[in-house]
Amino acid sequence: MFTAHAKRLLEFEAQSLLQRISELRPFALTLPMVPAASPSVAAQAAIESHLSQGRRSLRVALRRFLQWLGSPAGAQASAMDAQARFTVLRLQFLTAIDQFDLFSDALVERSQHGYGEWVGGLDVAATDALTLPTYLLDPPPIICHLDRGAGAAIRRVRTRLPGGSENPVALIRVPRERMIGSSVASSLVHEVGHQGAELLELLPPLQQRLLQRASRSRVDRPAWLCYHQWISEIVSDLWSIARVGVGSTLGLMGVVSLPRAFVFRIQSDDPHPTPWVRVKISAAIGRAFYPDPQWEQVAAIWDEYYPLASAPPASRRLLGLVESTLREFVALTLETPIPRLGGTPLGAIFPRADRLPARLRSLRALLRQDTRHLAVLSPTVAFAVVGQAKFDGAISSRIESQTLSRLLRFWALRATVDASIACADRLPRRATAVA
Q1: With contact defined as beta carbons under 8 Å apart, do 62 and 184 qualify?
Q2: Regarding beta strands 142-147 and 170-175, do their DSSP bridges make them parallel or antiparallel, or are they unpaired?
Q3: pTM of the model
Q4: E strands, 255-403, where?
Q5: Rg of the chain's alpha carbons, rounded to an integer?
Q6: 156-169: pLDDT as tens digits
């Protein structure tokens, strides 16, 4: 049994939490963004529903606690037991705050003039990158946001949020330094690849085949064990190459262009391939998807930047071994049947005809026309056209930046208009008055 003073303090703190919970208002009431910068209706609904449910559950729990404090059972309880109950509620409150801040950080920058529409366009491009004919027609909601740092990241849908609840949307962090050039497509679609690999369950069959291949190896066994360690990142790079072509590899080169010691460093616990060989793997996958002499040129340029002969002896031996098995590895990867997709080989799930280098070069004239002509293409194909033109030296950096800036704003605006039309079509028609 605890004193009236101790009880009053707990009542005050619980009531204070109730008051503060009421201040966590829906983002739709607090964020002054233009419509084109808004996330998709599905993403907004998923986030608001998730946060609302958390607030509602916490309010119910706090009111029950206050009722318990005023009940005979609460009066008979010790101060220690009452404090323990309150502490659990306070931790739930902190979890609600953490989740609110997580989504707030991703949404608040959309209120910045100019940036907001860019991010809205990235949402559209990411959704297009995740959508696959036949195999992935209804992707989960995606929200992108800009942040500091050199690498992108994703918090996948249905992964655990602070407190243990499931994330209702895919949340992609894009490095601000990537804005705005064609390299943003590489980072964006790589993170989309992580989400796609999980939804389609691509990794287990690949991991199994790599272990089987390693078990049959002698001299090159270390290379196959490296592939097994790196496969999650390689598959995401593959997704990016399949969707945006050579622009993916160029963007990757920008990310991993580091001091030589880092480019050749092999880390036994890192799921990312060693930077030097990661670019080589990317070029080899590109060669298999979209045959063209450009992939040998990309690999040769990378060798000029970072000659393998300049690597430490231990790294040089292992990286050389990995490079010697690249063609077999890529063939094994693309030919691996995916049980989740009825045994379809991994390489067959991506559309290719509209992303062949010759096709992308034939569309280059659209870069010199009104942006609306290029925007008629799907966002990933438009990204691929710009990336191809960049590699071919057909556009300047100024044209690249201006084109992508206009495209992102166009996609954001088009998505907003389409959503408005869809909502209007669902509204009941008013009867026409008769004179």
Answers
A1: no
A2: parallel
A3: 0.86
A4: 337-338, 344-345
A5: 26
A6: 999 998 888 899 99
